[in-house]
Design goal:
metal-binding; Rossmann fold; binds iron/sulfur cluster; iron; Dimethylsulfoxide Reductase, domain 2; binds ligand MGD; MoPterin_dinucl-bd_dom; binds molybdenum atom
Length: 709
């Protein structure tokens, strides 16, 4: 039995991996001695070996033999695959320039520490990822507002737990882990808190026993925050010492929010003014207060300003860098940083020449990397230019990005060379030229650092299936072949890990023995260091944004397709549509081909309030179509009491590995085909994936023969 750390989601759980005498992994269980997860394990973690040993796993590099998407593959040697990539990449760099090669990645997975660095070192600004819709705008916003990204102090390592916990647009306590926090630990923090405030259109599990559930209208988060800030200032409930000494722009904020009364917020959000007032005062007066937040905030045209408003509320409430509040973790000493959150240089922006940065395909000033919808469009129509090659590492954008049809056309019909690194033949891999077999976390030695900066965990290689390779080892080798040695001076993956550990004097096996390392936490670091902003203070009024010509004070933007913005659509599309709330058995598109997981959730579902379903004459399990101004997709109906009336939720990331290559049914129940490419957050490029309008209708008898799975 070996203690390792899981990467079935954003990872944080320490697990026990049990092997038989031949070394085969036979069972994976939770580790009750783990300080990060205290014995928790979810179905994805428990079934990790089902992915590892899956008969459909790609175990050798595969080269396309016929046209793209025709399903004809030939296994080749790694050297041949790497030669091919090297020659295409070199040719494109010479003929067109490095910006014509894009590196795409998915959400935070082990490769994340090298993908942006590789892209920057290559000289390409076109790093493509779902980050504009997830997490990173909050991170950039934090950088601008205070210089670092505050994290919830919910593990009690200081001896202090939060007295008030706010959960805002996040459901990780139900779905798994996120950002380095295990769902179980969030539940624990909610249990221990005196007061809990849940802000979510759905009555999620966290609402059970909570003090306040603010069931706002999807997309109206920023209005709610502005109303709460108004209350905290009007009642002088803010932390005067912190505001006076460590914040700048209070007068401007006070004047700005005067208009945003709880009554004003009630009209927009649908949350009663009195509840807004009480929740705001509770959050301010029951310190230390902390926050768990998520995609409910990110996937909106107001994502950036909502994040700004949240930081201002946290600052006013004195939550910043105090025990039990929202803190900046001190990473373990004597390890070189592996996270861009500790040292920006890790991401390698210093290797990208400024003139190359200018060529990034993104019309948005603070979009992280290339803006995916704009990037895929550019591949098809050549505006501003037409990228020629892409290396997709751990992403399935035909399903997870909007308009998979454009993504697919970009890959299949327009690129000169495409390579995908994955475990399986996915709808995205299926239209590539070359597919590289990727090592699973059970096949990796790792110093697990990415999100969990408050601790570092070890991961041990316990298996090797076929010729799979760690993405990072492959990027290292490609970097050497392309002469990117300045950014990648390490000989190989082991050499890199030895370099990370070097200041500690430990070898990898000595580190692996320890399993976990903690940082030596200090709080209120701003007292000595100030904040890393132009004024040296936490900027309630953002000088950086003002200088960029952006609104320096948070303002609310109504969702572009909503009962308020487009009342003329209501007759045809009477429901508010949220998409992609995370499902426990799956990690985005992963898990549909794991029988033990699929059994837990066999079909793509659309959830709606039971009264709405009844009014439409729809029943549990019935095949329905969800229609928006942009498309129609099919799901099975699930009457769900957690949803307020008038709001519908369609699951994302559905494909059917049991169906035929190359599509694997990726366009029948694809929630991302229900959106257009017109509406974005003007600052970050985020998309309103949780606040559209739709109709839900029964599929006619004749049509119902086309099943979803
Ligand atoms: N409508 C809607 N769309 C959404 C969302 C939503 O809420 N609504 N959520 C969005 C969010 S938050 C995100 S982060 C994105 C996620 O988007 P992606 O990260 O693109 O998610 P996946 O589609 O699961 O793609 C991951 C692929 O990589 C493979 N893979 C897994 N681990 C590794 C690895 O270590 N290396 C390699 N090479 N391959 C690996 C998997 O088999 C899978 O095929 O989706 C977004 N899409
Ligand atoms: N099991 C599992 N775990 C995962 C993932 C997975 O795919 N599966 N994905 C991982 C990734 S990449 C991410 S980013 C995280 C995301 O995890 P979460 O942040 O929890 O994301 P979601 O489940 O998409 O949405 C969270 C909540 O937002 C609410 N919501 C929807 N619209 C709105 C709105 O307009 N306003 C507000 N305030 N709330 C709204 C939804 O009802 C939902 O309860 O999960 C990670 N963990
Ligand atoms: S919550 Fe995430 S890290 Fe924990 S066991 Fe499940 S997949 Fe693994
Ligand atoms: Mo995400």
């Amino acid at each position: 039995m070996t203690r390792s750390s899981c990467r079935g989601c954003h990872g944080v759980c320490q697990l026990l991996v049990h092997q038989d005498e031949t070394g085969k992994i036979v069972r994976i269980t939770g580790d009750k001695d783990s300080p990060t997860s205290k014995g928790y394990i979810c179905p994805k973690g428990a079934r990790a070996a089902d992915t590892l040993y899956h008969p459909d796993r790609i175990t050798r590099p595969l080269l396309r033999e016929k046209g793209r998407g025709e399903g004809a593959w030939r296994a080749i040697e790694w050297d041949e695959a790497l030669d091919l990539m090297e020659s295409h990449f070199k040719r494109i760099i010479n003929e067109h320039g490095p910006e014509y090669i894009a590196i795409a990645q998915g959400t935070g997975r082990p490769y994340t520490e090298f993908t942006p660095r590789f892209c920057n070192a290559l000289g390409s600004p076109n790093h493509v990822s779902p980050a504009h819709n997830c997490y990173v705008p909050r991170n950039i916003c934090a950088g601008i507002t205070m210089g670092w990204f505050p994290q919830p102090d919910i593990y009690g390592r200081s001896g202090v737990m939060p007295r008030c916990v706010m959960v805002f647009g996040s459901n990780i306590m139900e779905s798994g882990g996120e950002g380095g926090y295990c769902g179980k630990m969030v539940i624990q923090a909610l249990k221990e808190a005196e007061k809990t405030i849940i802000i979510d259109p759905r009555r999620i599990k966290a609402c059970e026993g909570s003090d306040y559930h603010l069931a706002l209208r999807p997309g109206s988060e920023c209005a709610l925050m502005l109303g709460m800030i108004h209350v905290v200032i009007a009642h002088e409930a803010y932390d005067k010492d912190f505001v006076e000494n460590y914040c700048s722009g209070f007068k401007e904020l006070q004047a700005h929010v005067q208009q945003f009364t709880p009554q004003w917020a009630q009209e927009i959000t649908g949350v009663p003014a009195e509840m807004i007032e009480q929740a705001a005062l509770t959050f301010a007066r029951t310190g230390p207060s902390t926050l768990i937040w998520g995609n409910g905030i990110d996937e909106s045209v107001c994502a950036f300003q909502t994040a700004r408003a949240v930081y201002l509320l946290l600052a006013l409430c004195g939550s910043i860098d105090v025990p039990g509040g929202m803190v900046r973790w001190v990473p373990p000493a004597n390890l070189r940083p592996k996270s861009g959150m500790v040292d920006h240089a890790v991401q390698g922006a210093q290797f990208l020449p400024p003139e190359q940065r200018e060529k990034c395909i993104s019309p948005f000033p603070l979009c992280p990397g290339a803006h995916p919808p704009s990037f895929w469009q550019a591949c098809v129509d050549g505006k501003p230019y037409k990228p020629k090659a892409i290396w997709l590492i751990g992403t399935n954008p035909i399903l997870t990005h909007t308009r998979g049809d454009i993504v697919r056309s970009a890959l299949r019909d327009h690129m000169e060379f495409t390579v995908t690194s994955d475990f399986f033949m996915t709808p995205t891999a299926a239209v590539s030229d070359l597919v590289l077999p990727t090592a699973h976390w059970l096949e990796q030695d790792d110093i697990v650092y990415f999100h969990k900066i408050w601790c570092v965990l070890s991961r041990k290689k316990l298996a090797q299936i076929g010729e799979t390779r760690d993405d990072r080892a492959v990027m290292l080798e490609m970097a050497h072949r392309l002469g990117l040695d300045e950014a990648f001076p390490w000989k190989d993956w082991d050499d890199y890990m030895a370099w990370i550990l070097e200041p500690s004097g430990m070898t990898f096996s000595e580190f692996a023995e320890k399993d976990i390392l903690f940082g030596d936490m200090q709080y209120r670091k701003y007292e000595e260091q100030g904040f890393q902003t132009p004024s040296g203070k936490l900027e309630l009024y953002s000088n950086v944004m003002a200088k960029m010509g952006l609104e320096p004070m948070p303002v609310y933007t109504e969702p572009p397709i909503s009962p308020v913005s487009t009342p003329e659509l209501l007759e045809e599309f009477p429901f508010i549509l949220m998409t992609g709330c995370k499902l426990k058995p799956f990690f985005h598109t992963e898990g549909r081909n794991i029988p033990a997981l699929r059994k837990l959730h066999p079909n793509p579902m659309v959830d709606m309030n039971p009264e709405d379903a009844e009014a439409l004459g729809l029943e549990e399990g019935q095949l329905v179509q969800v229609r928006t101004p942009y498309g129609t997709q099919r799901f099975l109906l699930h009457p769900d009491e957690r949803l307020q009336k008038g709001v519908v939720h369609a699951e994302h990331a559905w494909w059917f590995p049991e169906q035929e290559e190359p599509e694997f049914g990726c366009f029948t129940s694809n929630a991302n085909m229900l959106f257009g490419h017109e509406h974005f957050d003007t600052i970050s490029g985020a998309q309103p994936l949780k606040s559209g309008l739709c109709a839900v209708q029964a599929v006619s008898e004749a049509d119902a023969t086309a099943p979803v799975s």
